[in-house]
Amino acid sequence: MGSIHENLKILFFPYFAQGHMLPMIDMAKLFASRGADVTILTTPANSPLILPAVDQFNSSSTFPIPIRLHLIPFPSDAVGLPEGCEHLSSLTSNTTQIAKFAEAVSLLRNPFDRVLKELRFDCVVSDFFLPWTYDVAADNGIPRIIFEGSNFFAACAVDSLERHKPLESLPPEEESFVLPGLPHRIELLRSQLQDNTKVVPFMIPVIEIVKHAREVYSKSFGTVVNSFYELEPDYAEHSRKVLGRRAWHVGPVALCNQAEVDKSGRGGGGKTGEECLRWLDERSPGSVLYMCFGSICNFTATQLKEMAMGLEDSGHPFVWVIRDAGDEWIPEGYEERIEGRGILIKEWAPQLLILNHEAVGGFVTHCGWNSSLEGIAAGLPMGTWPLYAEQFFNERLLVDVLGIGVEVGSNVFAILPEDRPVVKARDLEAAVRRVMGDGEEAEERRRRARELKEMARKAVEVGGSSYNDLGKLIEELREKKKEQIV
Ligand code: UDP
Q1: Smallest Cα–Cα separation from 243: which of 172, 181, 306?
Q2: Residue 48 neighbours by CB under 8 Å, 6+ apart
Q3: Which residue, among 155, 106, 159, has the nearest Cα to 135 in the 3D structure?
Q4: Which residue's C-alpha comes closest to atom 11 of ligand 1?
């Protein structure tokens, strides 16, 4: 660590959703453990989601500068949102509240500017979905680094679509196409992409934000990526050489949560989570399937019923996180039938602890990038069930490039659950049997997954690729700071 004068003062500003906050808190901890003076900026109702992890870090850390939390009010009132509605998962209706939420977030621009002026940072690391932070940081003369929350592969896939426009030349009767110019042959279905001619009205503000975010992309200082070089070397190179991006791979950031208490403190974890961990203690190694769809996805009752049957029919023990889906859809007698063989978690689950439990042998995921990378770092083969965002790209990475994924059969990009065709119980059952089975193909997937787990661990160790890249970024920022002082 350098002298106190060289300590970088960095402000982290995460977007208000667990899938964005959790990796950014981990990233903040990584910077702090390398000597940076770190502040996390958020709003009052989001503070309880961040504070336990920060307190935990500060009390166990041997580093001289504790991580600070700085709060600015969230203007729920000004846009007509209920008080305390400051987090994506606190929205009760996508259709009526997303636009208001987006507007409230954009109103944080002036408070953010005041924070930069008052507290004077050397650099801002802010979420991709807060593109105006670039403009404000630039006005204050400091670099802004983007936290994109995704991986190199997905960025290259998006670039391929924009650069080569393969859909424009695709005959209307054809459904599948290959993404041009990528290091591997990656085939997608038309239905797996957001159809820009059928954007649901409530998503228009979000699309505008993404447009703005792309515009300021190349002007920002660079991007920190929650990935590691050995996972996707071809795409890290492609991103640099073809996309011309400056990016530092510093992940898997979740591996900084080594202690059990850190893993469990990540976003809470309730009573069933604890029961589930005790239940897992009694299961044999690699025997249990874990299924979870991240922090914001929801499903129709019909789809939930098919899922319930698929898991039951697979014959494998399972843990399924359904969170706040209610009970009405649960098939009659289901919970009695699965007793001893399956656990439904109806609240926030301690996902890192579950994934890393030795009884867990497979993971059905919606392919959110955090979950995907956490599954990789835990050495698990995965059943892939993407829904929207860049999840269909992540599925291709897991299945085609890394060889650790089995598609469940979700092929339509749709944000609203009722717009998605129902995936049948038999498709889930078949995918679970393949992931958890013991044939040659399943063994090979397991072998690959174990290999990637080892690579992930090495990447974040002292001297590993992610450890070194983070070091390079910190060094570069220190140099920049010195230039500014001179
Ligand atoms: N997560 C968790 N418990 C849950 C659901 C999710 O700990 O019950 C965590 C999960 O470990 C991951 C994050 O929430 O770190 C979800 O991020 P991801 O990118 O996978 O999906 P998103 O929620 O953004 O769709």
Answers
A1: 181
A2: none
A3: 106
A4: 351
Q: Which residues are catalytic?
A: 20, 127
Q: How far apart are CA 180 and CA 236, in angstroms?
A: 17
Residue 254 Cα: closest atom of ligand 1:
15
Domains of the chain and any CATH numbers: 4-154+194-255+458-485 (3.40.50.2000), 268-456 (3.40.50.2000)
Q: Kindly report, residue by residue over 50-75, the tens digit of the pLDDT.
A: 999 999 899 987 777 999 999 999 99
**How many helices (H) and strands (E) are present in the chain, helices listed first?**
19, 15
Asked whether the beta carbons of 359 and 284 are under 8 A apart, the reply is yes
Q: What is the tens place of the pLDDT at every residue in 122-164? A: 999 999 999 999 999 999 999 999 998 999 999 999 999 999 9
Q: Is the pLDDT of residue 2 over 50?
A: no
Q: 182 in helix, strand or coil?
A: coil
Centroid of chain to Cα 289: 20
**Atom 13 of ligand 1, nearest CA residue:** 19
Residues with CB under 6 A from ligand 1: 18-19, 22, 266-267, 292, 294-296, 321, 348-349, 351-352, 368-371, 374
Q: Where are the beta strands (DSSP E) in 305-366?
A: 318-321, 342-345, 360-365
Cβ burial of 282 (10 Å; 0-12, 13-18, 19+) is exposed
Tokens, residue 293? 């769809």
Do you know the residue count of the chain? 486
Maximal CA-CA distance, the chain:
73
Task: Give the atom of ligand 1 at the shortest distance from the alpha carbon of 355.
Answer: 11
For the chain, first and last CA: distance in Å? 21
Structure tokens at 274: 């604890």
Whole-number mean pLDDT of the chain? 93
